[in-house]
Automatic annotation (TrEMBL):
HAMAP family: Ribosomal_uL29 (MF_00374). SUPFAM superfamilies: Ribosomal protein L29 (L29p). Keywords: Ribonucleoprotein, Ribosomal protein. Signal peptide: none annotated. The lineage of its organism: Bacteria, Bacillati, Actinomycetota, Actinomycetes, Streptosporangiales. GO terms for biological process: translation. GO terms for molecular function: structural constituent of ribosome. It comes from Actinomadura harenae. Belongs to the universal ribosomal protein uL29 family. The keyword Ribosomal protein applies. One of its GO terms (cellular component) is cytosolic large ribosomal subunit. This is Large ribosomal subunit protein uL29. The keyword Protein transport does not apply.
């Protein structure tokens, strides 16, 4: 998963890529939680970062579902 994932980057991605990134982030979060429980986690800040990335992905997916932002709208704004 890329570090510094922004909502603007996610809005340009197609739906299937968002689903893939969401799955990867959830797997990473599971692994980080497992490491935290066993005392092997070195970077506690990464837990927070991954949770926020998951929230960003869900937000972009929900925006599309509600019709607030679509991929075509975002592409048009990027050209201006």
């Amino acid at each position: 998963m890329a570090k510094g994932l922004t909502a603007d980057d996610l809005r340009t991605e197609p739906e299937d890529v968002l689903v893939t990134k969401l799955k990867e982030a959830k797997e990473e979060l599971f692994n980080l939680r497992f490491q935290a429980a066993t005392g092997q986690l070195e970077s506690h800040g990464r837990l927070r970062t991954v949770k926020r990335e998951i929230a960003r992905i869900y937000t972009v997916m929900r925006e599309r579902e509600l019709g607030i932002v679509t991929v075509a709208d975002d592409a048009a704004e990027g050209e201006k």
